[in-house]
Specification:
heterotrimer, A alpha/beta, B mainly alpha, C alpha/beta, A: globular, C: 12 helices, 34% helix
Chain lengths: 336, 301, 328
């Protein structure tokens, strides 16, 4: 179980000598990912979803809040003691091309973390080789042909599998997949997604899926929760299928409306929501963060900020004063 | 299964090493110019190490044949004391090359070390080291050397190399730091940190190999720089007279033998110049291959 | 200058790249017609040859690549494959507008958009520069931007979606009626993507253009294109009206691609990955069908004979299995 509460993170943007601007990347985010479960963060680029993923993987610091990994609250530990906890959470990078060292063979890449582990647990050298072959088989690669290769000799899809295999060398509890398939050929994407799904089932690894594509989130973590993040705030949270079928926050509705319709196979939703254009980055900080782009904003929205809450008639949590169901997603023609 | 894997593991690194050298050979074969470069550089190394052994400590002079033009007996003629110019160049090469090697080594070791440390640690240490580097870079090298030469005689090539090296690492440090800063943001470095690998591993096994072509190039270029610097110093005559030093030879050829007006002394002037030129050429030709040697993609193709 | 949308007829186009293994075809024997006033979408993965095909439209394939065979006939211009030098340069801005991938790298980071617009105008000998600026502002305004402000901005001051709009403006401002958009929405967010696609559709209709959209994302084509062409391994394997192709794909690759898209509604486990991986320039087979290694309908003839592109009703499909079924 990995939980976070009230995570706050600000970045200082370099300004002039007179002062710098503070950008709030995360404004008090709560989340909980059960052991072996799944969760998906969706939102546009710059919404803070990647930052949150990096914080969870221990690659970024946070200003406020608490992370609890497997029952251990990290605030009670010194920075040095946190490392072994963060090691249980492995980040799968978006770009499989920069995630592997071009000067090292796959064997060398897998050998380093495995030999560290062998040293810690008193295992033999033979175990390292065995385990290296094992993790490669787990991700669907043939150890015999892959081990001696350099990254440039592998396709993007194979590289991403190697990256996943490398993460598995430390027996992680959770994989954080940050747009893990966006740089991979379309016909190979589903293979990688299926692999992550398969690892969940076979190894009981939880998967945190960070993406802008709701459909892929549904594929990997259909049984988990969906977090819709806007400007550092979770604006809607609930079971994936509930949110896809019955979104109530206008931002979620805009995201779902924006998904291209496969004409010929699907019929567009009846009430698509088109948000107004994004404002300047230095937008209004009072009131609802989405108010400036929201086609349905009321008076209350510009003066008061809605918090994540459950209201009557809606199973999911949302941060909207005027929640309303709208039919936004495309339906298959066969269903109509 | 495990029993059969152990020998395989041992031989895996050996195979890798063999593959690497096969790759180097392939890269070198791609262009004849690279082979020529290697031959020249290796030739100079041999000359520096073994050359002086073939000659007596004090080269015999022939007063009957002073400042002779090139002939079959003396390929580059003789100097004003009647000694063979080629022999002088060869015996003098050891000082020049040893000094250059020491300079290159120090430049690269100090520059890479500080650059890596600075770029990887960032923060306060980075600021301190970089300020020192900037200060060092602003010190004009040649005037400082001239001043130093008045108090220190640089008797051994190692001392000379040490001084040149300590004056030369600034640029390398800055460049290596910049490279480190950009590399440390790469996914694979981040992944290594996430896997809990030690800093030693990250710096030594992940960062350094990625910078190897760069470091190797800097090292080779530092060699030529050091040769120019010391030959220049000796030519200016600020350092003690040493009859077979290339710089001193140039000085004597111009100011004593009058090579500018005396065609007979032309060989005396040309021999050290040609040696420097050839060495530089060899290094430039080899540098061309560095990128391909250390980049597996270019190496294996 | 053609005042209405030109038609384009690509016939038997083959583009080869020179490699150490000899000249390899990136695009092989492709025939495609863009009817005047339509939007055509080309879908393909990396290495499918879709970008090379788009570049051939401008005869802008860079060495070591070259057009080895075939023709690209554009109304009012003739065979572009035969144009050279100055003629070609003129044609590129005035007749054919090209919007580069996400417009990220096609803007000069040191100059304002306005300066680049003027450069473009001058290099094409536009005399009425104020008119050009007026036209640019109008176009930007049409796309929902503050024209004056955008022209005064540098690249880094614009968001991805704004840059893409600037790219479209620069492609259209010289009154080109044939527009090629290369991956117009890659690296853009969902909502921005939807907006750009809407703009492409609207501008296309308003200005009377012939548009070609190149993408790896079948969803993008589904949104905007009237006709869809699927490329694989340098070959055009299927083309036809978008709705028909999506609704009932014929070629096994098209079918596999559509099946591999996770959907929002219905049984998610129906999504199936395509086995194998797409060929690259060096691994593409020189004989037989390019897709056979990943194909469920593979027959003996696929190993030896390259399937010809055969019309089936409104569709053109290059597949032995489909041809056999039609005739059975």
């Amino acid at each position: 179980m990995i939980t976070g509460s009230g995570i706050v993170k600000s970045f200082r943007q370099r300004g002039t000598i007179l002062g710098s601007r503070e950008v709030r990347a995360l404004r008090g985010v709560d989340f909980a990912i059960p052991k072996g479960g799944a969760a998906s963060f969706i939102g546009e680029s710059g919404c803070g979803k990647t930052t949150l993923g990096r914080i969870i993987a221990g690659l970024e610091s946070y200003d406020e809040g608490e992370l609890v990994i497997g029952g251990t609250a990290l605030s009670e530990l010194k920075p040095k003691q946190r490392q072994p906890h963060f090691r249980k959470i492995q980040l799968i990078h978006q770009d499989p091309y920069s995630a592997l060292n071009p000067t090292r063979t796959i064997h060398q890449t897998l050998h380093a973390p495995l030999s560290l582990r062998a040293k810690q647990t008193g295992r033999s050298k033979a175990w390292i080789e065995e385990r290296a072959a094992e993790v490669l088989s787990l991700v669907g690669l043939d150890p015999g042909t892959v081990l001696a290769r350099y990254p440039h000799q592998l396709s993007g899809g194979m590289r991403q599998r190697v990256v996943i295999a490398r993460a598995l060398t430390v027996d992680p509890e959770m994989l954080v997949a940050d747009e893990a398939v966006s740089m991979i050929d379309v016909s190979l994407r589903l293979g990688i997604l299926a692999l992550l799904k398969d690892l969940r089932e076979r190894l009981g690894v939880s998967v945190l899926f960070i993406t802008h594509d709701v459909a892929t989130a549904r594929y990997i973590g259909g049984d988990g929760e969906l977090y819709v993040i806007y400007r550092g705030q979770v604006v809607e949270r609930g079971p994936v299928d509930t949110i896809i079928a019955d979104p109530v926050h206008p931002y979620t509705q805009s995201l779902l409306s924006a998904i291209p319709v496969l004409h010929g196979l699907e019929q567009p939703g009846e009430q698509p929501v088109v948000p107004l254009e994004p404002l300047d980055p230095g937008q209004d900080e009072t009131g609802c963060l989405f108010a400036g782009r929201c086609p349905f904003r009321g008076e209350r929205c510009t003066s008061e900020r809605p918090l994540l809450q459950v209201t009557e008639g809606h199973p999911q949590e949302h941060a909207c004063f005027y929640p309303e169901r709208r039919s936004v997603i495309a339906r298959p023609l066969s269903e109509v | 299964m495990s029993a059969t894997l152990i020998p395989e593991a041992g031989s895996a690194t050996a195979t890798m090493r063999r593959n690497f050298w096969q790759g180097v050979w392939r890269v070198m074969k791609r262009k004849p110019s690279r082979m020529a470069g290697v031959v020249i550089v290796v030739g100079f190394a041999f000359m520096g190490v073994f050359g002086p052994m073939f000659f007596p400590e004090h080269l015999p002079g022939n007063v009957e044949a002073i400042t002779q033009p090139p002939s079959w007996e003396h390929w580059f003629g003789t100097d004003p004391q009647g000694r063979d110019v080629l022999a002088l160049v060869i015996t003098g090469s050891r000082y020049v090359l040893l000094c250059a090697a020491v300079t290159a080594l120090i430049t690269v070791v100090v520059g890479t070390g500080l650059g890596l440390f600075s770029g990887f640690k960032r923060g306060r240490w980075d600021t301190v080291i970089m300020r020192v580097t900037d200060m060092k870079l602003t010190i004009p090298g040649l005037p400082l050397l001239l001043v130093l030469a008045t108090v220190w005689k640089f008797g051994s090539p190692i001392q000379m190399g040490l001084v040149l090296g300590l004056l030369g690492w600034g640029g390398v440090a800055r460049a290596v730091r910049a490279q480190t800063l950009s590399l440390r943001e790469r996914g694979f470095i981040e992944a290594a940190r996430g896997l809990g690998l030690s800093t030693g591993h990250i710096v030594g096994k992940e960062l350094l190999p990625s910078m190897a072509p760069y470091i190797a190039m800097n090292m080779l270029i530092a060699v030529t720089g050091a040769v120019y610097a010391q030959v220049g110093l000796f030519f200016l005559g600020v350092l003690p007279y040493e009859s077979d030093n290339w710089g001193v030879m140039l000085n004597l050829a111009v100011f004593q033998a009058g090579a500018m007006i005396q065609p007979n002394a032309l060989g005396y002037l040309m021999a050290p110049l040609l040696a420097i030129l050839l060495l530089t050429l060899g290094i430039v030709l080899v540098v061309d291959a560095m990128d391909e040697i250390f980049n597996p993609r270019l190496r294996e193709e | 200058m053609p005042e209405q949308a030109p038609g384009v007829r690509i016939g038997g186009l083959t583009v080869v790249y020179k490699t150490s293994a000899g000249e390899l075809p990136a695009v092989r024997d492709v025939s495609l017609t863009l009817e005047p006033g339509t939007i055509t979408g080309i879908v393909g993965e990396s290495g499918s040859g879709k970008s090379t095909l788009a570049l051939s439209l401008l005869n802008a394939v860079q060495p070591p690549g070259r057009i080895a065979a075939g023709s690209v006939e554009i109304d009012g211009l003739g065979d572009v494959a035969g144009l050279r030098g100055e003629q070609l340069r003129k044609a590129r801005g005035k007749h054919i507008g090209y919007v580069f991938q996400a417009a990220q790298n096609s803007l000069n980071p040191l100059k304002t958009v306005g300066k680049q617009l003027l450069d473009l105008g001058r290099s094409h000998g536009v005399e009425d520069l104020p008119g050009l600026v007026r036209e640019a502002k109008e176009l930007l305004g049409r796309m929902g931007l503050d024209g004056a402000r955008v022209l005064d901005s540098h690249q880094h001051e614009l968001s991805g979606g704004m840059r893409q709009r600037v790219g479209i403006m620069l492609a259209l401002v010289l009154n080109a009626h044939l527009v090629v958009l290369d991956e117009p929405t890659t690296a853009l967010d969902m909502i921005t993507q939807a907006n750009i696609l809407k703009i492409i559709r609207e501008v296309h209709a308003e200005r009377g253009l012939t548009t070609l959209v190149i993408t790896h994302d079948i969803g993008v084509v589904a949104e905007v294109a009237d006709r869809l062409a699927v490329m694989y391994g340098g070959r055009l394997v299927e083309q036809g009206p978008t709705r028909e192709v999506l609704g009932a794909p014929s070629h096994p690759y098209t079918r596999g691609l559509i099946k591999a898209i996770p959907r929002l509604v219905g049984d998610i486990d129906e999504a199936r990955a395509l086995p194998g991986r797409p060929p690259t320039l060096t691994t593409v087979p020189d004989r037989g069908c390019v897709f056979r290694d990943r194909c469920a309908l593979r027959m003996d003839v696929c190993d030896t004979e390259d399937p010809a592109a055969v019309p089936h009703g409104s569709r053109i499909v290059a597949c032995h299995a489909v041809t056999v079924k039609e005739h059975a």
